Amino acid sequence: ELERQKEAPVDLTADKIDRVIRNTLIDYGIKPSLAGFRSLMVALRLIHSDPTYLKGMHNRLYPEVAKITGTTVKSVEVAIGYAGRNCGTPKTFLPLMASRIDDTIKLAGG
After folding, report:
1. DSSP 3-state assignment of 70?
2. DSSP 3-state helix, strand, coil percentages of the chain (rounded to 5)?
3. What is the DSSP letter of 31?
4. In Å, how far are 44, 69, 72, 105 from 76, measured between CA atoms?
5. Total Cβ atoms within 10 A of residue 31
6. 23, 75, 55: which is closest to 65 by C-alpha?
7. Quick check: helix, strand or coil at residue 104?
8. Which residues contact 88 (CB under 8 A, 6 or more apart)?
9. Reported confidence tier of residue 6, pLDDT bands at 50, 70, 90
10. CA pair distance 110, 74, nearest whole angstrom
11. Are 92 and 81 in contact (CB under 8 A)?
12. Cβ atoms < 10 Å from Cβ of 46
């Protein structure tokens, strides 16, 4: 019975994926009180579901996040840039976070 449990795939729900994203951001010092925290959550959720968003951040990702969050593309860009600068990785912040999140989800079996 125990052997079967180890091999069974874990189905991560959207809530669990959101928790992984949220915890990863917090681990990197990005606090939920940051004005753009929700934009970051949405951006990373979109990247997790479709990694090609990383290739079109300004043309695809930021406008989609702005639409979902009801804000402007500029606000999304500023929030993500601010978070990246605070982590010391302004140019690679989203790819780095996406990679960490995917690694955590893989470790959880998702």
Report:
1. coil
2. 75, 0, 25
3. -
4. 12, 9, 7, 25
5. 10
6. 75
7. helix
8. none
9. very low
10. 33
11. no
12. 18
Task: Give the span between the Cα atoms of 40 and 62, in whole angstroms.
Answer: 10
Residue type at 41 in one-letter notation = M
Taking only the tens place, the pLDDT of each residue in 26-64 is: 998 889 998 889 999 999 999 999 999 999 889 999 999
Residues 77-90 as b or e (16 or more Cβ within 10 Å = b) = bebbebbbeebeee
- The type of residue at 92 is T
Q: CA–CA distance from 77 to each of 51, 94, 110 (Å)?
A: 18, 11, 29
The residue behind tokens 């959880």 is 108
Nearest CA to 38 out of 95, 82, 79 is that of 79
Which residues are CB-neighbours of 9 under 8 A, at least 6 positions away? 109, 110
Q: Is the pLDDT of residue 90 over 90?
A: no
| C-alpha 28: how far from chain center | 12
